[in-house]
Write a structure and sequence with these properties.
Pfam families: Creatinase_N (PF01321), Creatinase_N_2 (PF16189), Peptidase_M24 (PF00557), Peptidase_M24_C (PF16188). This protein is an alpha+beta fold. The strands form eight sheets. A six-stranded mixed beta sheet has the order 4-3-2-1-5-6. A six-stranded mixed beta sheet has the order 12-11-10-8-13-14. It has a four-stranded antiparallel beta sheet with strand order 21-28-27-24. Helix 4 (94-101) packs parallel to helix 5, helix 14 crosses helix 15 and helix 16 (418-435) packs antiparallel against helix 17. The radius of gyration is 25 Å and the shape is globular. The relative contact order is 0.09.
Length: 600
């Protein structure tokens, strides 16, 4: 099956053989991960889609792929319209589409290890209304036809030092034990890979760009933990680190262990655990208590060691990016450079730090029209030359033992148009509005998202993604529960209150289909703020900018900036020069000084 059309035909044949009339294919794994290992890339294998979020539904006579606004262009480039209908979410959901297309009496299959309980209930309700049935598949039918499917990673687990974690695993498990006592629960099942890594102070290499290991954990009310992981992944150093309070089991023993929790009150996260986990607990006579994974909020609020580590990682990473920006400004206008060659050069600059462990995601190296796809991923097939007259957007990050980075910059190749400068400046104004925001403790990201959009709205413009996401500490580049987004953008609004110690990205953008894309991204730390003359009883918060790299002055129309915006930009660039300058050679420092000169 060398073509995606042949794979679709084979899937339909397999569905017929197991008496299913359709099947739902989400892009996730059994941990509800955003980024998944090669073994779990079922959606990409079936359709050719290379994005990080999407779902497909295959019926006997029709198939559809569901993506949000970040992938509107990409899905059309990668997935054949001859076989697939393109459906935009959230305007139309999977359940909406099924309600319109499923036939009475149909049996629609799903993999219970790839769906949450709530999504299963919604699907079952919609199908029942159409006199159709939702059926849990004993085995994922894609796995039956994917004959060369990669095996899960066998990479070893490594210890994440307490000095970098800022707290020991025993301390973290004690906090979870106290939480279980407060919730009158006997145990909590941790299925999110980053939660397990954070709780046990371990890291792995089982998912590209995310340092996690494929595992499950069950933390009991006394703080002891059962860890389910392939035995070959654990060496003596990890055994010693985990200690006697962490009992090791083969990962394959996890479902049986869940069924052994009879008469126990077991906490399970409704958003992060698949329905198969709850099904197994209930099948064994346990009581499921639907509660958010207790590691989620604790992990999001960084301690002083994690904050210090991120500052060091950001300074190091910013110097590498700055060196790349100088290289790109010199080399790209000469011709001969492509999206792939530029991405490789940026990676080389980061590797020269001697401390890079991985990139934090596939670099978005996008020139011209490719920049208009916010999550564009360059391949050998899509690789485009970087040419005069284009904007070149690069969104990238590094994984270092002391921090995870994520930063976006745009540079003009040659002279930018007046329109490009106008749009870039409006994006910059929105970026500054977030960076300088001051707000009461308890404010959510949804409440400040509009700050980033107002300069664009005033020109009748907008961008189709959230403004900011949380970020891990040598963990996932996208981390919840906090984010900055409105309800009608991918992922929906975050009503999670912003708390001191949280880190988020600040990345407004603008995208002109077929021509160019603009995004300016720095990372921020939420911190307490004192407002002179303010109510002393009202706690206030603001942001510290953590990312340092020059913002392209040739794309800025200074006439659009207010005095306050100019002051922020000049102050930011002075700090860039202070932090990054000492890490550069003489020629690089001279170039950076010019880029960071005050804008009048």
């Amino acid at each position: 099956m060398s073509t995606h059309h042949e794979r679709l035909v084979a899937l339909r044949d397999e569905l017929y053989s197991i008496q299913l009339d359709g099947f739902i294919v989400p892009l996730t794994d059994e941990h509800m991960s955003e980024y998944v290992g090669d073994y779990a890339q079922r959606l990409g294998w079936l359709t050719g889609f290379g994005g990080s979020a999407g779902t497909a539904v295959v019926l006997a006579d029709k198939a559809a792929i569901f993506t949000d606004g970040r992938y509107t262009l990409q899905v059309r480039e990668q997935v054949s319209a001859d076989d697939w209908d393109y459906v935009a979410v959230p305007a139309e959901s999977v359940t909406d589409w099924l309600a319109d297309h499923v036939r009475p009496g149909a049996r629609i299959g799903y993999d219970p290890w790839l769906h949450t309980r709530s999504s299963v209930e919604q699907l079952r309700e919609v199908l029942a209304d159409r006199d159709a049935t939702l059926v849990a598949a004993d085995r994922n039918p894609i796995d039956a036809i994917w004959t060369d499917r990669p095996a899960p990673s066998h990479a070893r687990i490594v210890v994440h030092p307490d000095t970098q974690a800022g707290a020991s695993s025993a301390e973290k498990r004690a906090i979870i034990a106290d939480w279980l006592g407060d919730k009158r629960a006997d145990a909590v099942v941790l299925t999110a890979l980053d939660s397990i890594a954070w709780t046990l102070n371990v890291r792995g290499a089982d998912v590209d760009h995310t340092p996690v290991a494929l595992a499950y954990a069950v933390v009991s009310a006394d703080g002891t933990t059962d860890l389910f992981v392939a035995p070959e992944k654990v060496d003596d150093a990890v055994h010693q680190h985990l200690g006697n309070a962490v009992r090791l089991h083969d990962r394959a023993a996890f479902p049986a262990h869940l069924q052994s929790l009879a008469d126990k009150r077991v906490a399970i996260d409704p958003e992060r655990a698949v329905t198969a986990v709850a099904d197994a607990v209930e099948a064994g006579g346990g009581k499921v208590v639907w509660l958010r994974d207790p590691a989620v909020l604790a992990k999001a609020i960084k301690n002083q060691a994690e904050i210090a580590g991120h500052r060091a990682a950001s300074a190091r990473d910013g110097a590498a990016l700055t060196r790349f920006l100088r290289w790109a400004e010199i080399e790209c206008p000469r011709g001969g450079q492509t999206e792939l060659s530029a991405a490789a050069k940026l990676l080389a600059f980061r590797q020269e730090t001697g401390l890079l462990l991985d990139s934090s995601f596939d670099t978005i190296s996008a020139t011209g029209a490719h920049g208009a796809s916010p999550h564009y991923r360059v391949t050998e097939e899509s690789n485009a030359p970087i040419e005069l007259g284009q904007l070149f957007l690069v969104d990238s990050g590094g994984q270092y033992a002391d921090g995870t980075t994520d930063v976006t910059r745009v540079i003009p190749i040659g002279r930018p148009t007046d329109e490009m400068r106008d749009r870039f400046t409006r994006v910059l104004q929105g970026h500054i509005a977030i960076a300088t925001a001051v707000f009461p403790d308890g404010t959510s990201g949804a409440q400040i998202d509009g700050f980033a959009r107002r300069p664009l709205w005033e020109a009748g413009l907008d961008f189709g993604h959230g403004t900011g996401h949380g970020i891990g500490s040598y963990l996932a580049v996208h981390e919840g529960p906090q984010r900055i987004a409105a309800p009608n953008y991918p992922g929906g609004a975050s009503l999670e209150p912003l708390r001191a110690g949280m880190m988020l990205s600040n990345e407004p953008g603008y995208y002109k289909a077929g021509e160019y894309g603009i995004r300016i991204e720095n990372l921020l730390l939420v911190e307490p703020r004192t407002i002179p003359g303010g109510d002393p009883e009202r706690a206030m918060l603001g942001f510290e900018t953590l990312t340092f790299a020059p913002i392209e002055r040739d794309l800025i129309d200074s006439a659009l900036l207010t005095t306050g915006e100019q002051a922020w930009l000049n102050g930011y660039h002075a700090r860039v020069l202070e932090v990054i300058g000492p890490q550069l050679d003489e020629d690089e420092r001279r170039w950076l000084a010019a880029k960071c000169a005050p804008i009048a």
